[in-house]
Amino acid sequence: MTGQTLKVEDDSSMLKDTPSTSPELIPKKYLISFILVTLCFPLWGFANDITNPLVKAFSKVLQMSAAEGTWVQVAFYGGYGVMAIPAAIFIKKFSYKAGLMTGLAFYALGALLFLPAAGAQSFTYFLIAFFVMTCGLSFLETSANPYVLSMGPAATATQRLNLAQAFNPVGSLLGMFVATQFIIQKLNPASDAERRELAADGSQQAIEQLSAITANDLEVIRDPYLAIGVVVLFVLAVIAFKTMPRTGAKSEGVDLTGTFKRLIANQNYREGVIAQMFYVGAQIMCWTFIIHYGTEVFMELGMTEQAAEAKSQTFNIYAMVIFCLSRFICTFLLKYVNPGKLLMLLSAGGMCFTAATIFLDGIMGMYTLVGISACMSLMFPTIYGIALTGTGEDAKLGAAGLIMAIVGGTFLPMAQATIIDMNVVFDSFSATKASFVLPFICFVVIALYGKRSQQHIPS
Questions:
Q1: Residues 6+ apart with CB under 8 A from 281
Q2: What is the 3-state secondary structure (H, E, C) of 89-123?
Q3: What would the pLDDT profile of 93-146 be if each residue is shown by its tens digit?
């Protein structure tokens, strides 16, 4: 069967605020397609959360600073910024299905590029692989999110997207588990200091020993990506052979100028893009630097560096479990609570947990850092749904702006890493603790958007 799609009537009119004749969350004619598209959500969740711990892993394996290690995040999330607009134009010209297939193809290619990167022992090659992979993720997210929004009445669009997004943490949990069990714990136990000593030794024996350790560790990092590359190719084949419904008329022309003017004039959309950027930054900071925070805490409690890192990654998995459970709970609450109001309340909760992470010592600080994830669970799909409300056919390009906002996952974590690398005490707070003032600021921005957006999403 070819990749052609079956044209059907668009029930949602791409989020236009028109009355819906059906209260259904997912109309039956969209159910199978909804399930297939939802399968893509855990795929990019896996990629995101197997990658976050690699900032610490690459820093250790290649003897880099925390800021240098965050180039992993720059390459990974930079792909979203570069490819989001081209992806949206492609989707507007062709179809959501074409966008999904292109995204899966780039995803698989990037994952398979880990093979030559590990062989060359080149950090630059790994960064290229990350970038290619996330060009694919940009296509996937730019396609899947608005596609789900359009698969039914506008009145249930945000709830429908939250339901699909609830499966994203399943992939994230698997990614974290693989990162812990098949990467972090399988890296050579040599500490940062021991590796630096071998590098400084300069003798042939030391050089060969360090090279062997590095080669083995890079192969450990490589293997899970090769495995997910094969899985993604399988999903690509399934979608390629499945007839998918078209939820909007094919665009013969792309009026970029008119679309951009309408989107920029839309205050709710503009502020949504900004809020999304700060949300993604907060998420990546809290999940990436929980390893640094926890390593500091557990080493103070007497653990070795490797044991402290593994323990910290276990807490990261706890955070994701809480995130996953909270996503389902929040999806249920959206039946009764205005999305903007719930977003505002959870942002306030995030501010409280982040403040506690800074001010509390020892294991209590770790508990509150984990607790932030309960508040973040609702944010991405809810900001996304609110921002696209009333954008009509412009939602296809509007989605690109919200995906481009994921670049918040590049510069904000790097700013936090720079604070951590300062390695100084700020009025009795360690640099790591003090760095969490950045996620706190992010939650303030999101809370303000939640408050201001309530007028756009009626209760």
A1: 408, 409, 411, 412, 413, 438, 439, 442
A2: HHHHHCCHHHHHHHHHHHHHHHHHCHHHHHHHCCH
A3: 888 888 999 999 999 999 999 999 988 888 889 999 999 998 999 899 888 888
Number of H helices, E strands in the chain: 23, 2
All domains in the chain, ordered by first residue: 27-243+254-453 (1.20.1250.20)
389: left (phi over 0), alpha (psi -120 to 50) or beta: beta
Give residues with Cβ within 8 angstroms of 266, minimum separation 6: 390, 391
CA distances from 107 to 117, 137, 178, 187, 299 (A): 16, 6, 18, 25, 37
Q: How far apart are CA 324 and CA 206, in angstroms?
A: 45
Which tokens sit at 291?
Answer: 């390893």
Residue 225: in which H helix or E strand, if any?
A: helix 204-240
Please name the residues in contact with 2: beta carbons below 8 A apart, sequence gap of 6 or more.
Answer: none
Contact 215, 20 (CB under 8 A): no
Percentage of the chain surpassing pLDDT 90?
23
Give which of 439, 128, 164, 139 is closest to 280, Cα–Cα.
439
Beta strands in 6-111 (DSSP E): 6-7
Is 403 within 8 Å of 138 (Cβ atoms)? Answer: yes
Our CA angle for 400, 403, 409, nearest 5°, is: 150
Q: What is the pLDDT of residues 219-243, one digit of tens each?
A: 888 999 999 999 999 999 998 888 7
Torsion angles phi and psi, residue 46, rounded to 5: -60, -45
- Count CA atoms closer than 13 A to 264's CA, side-chain side: 6
pLDDT at 455: 67
| Rounded Cα distance, 453 and 275, in Å | 11
246: enclosing H helix or E strand: strand 245-246
Please give the Cα distance from 49 to 143 (Å, whole number): 21
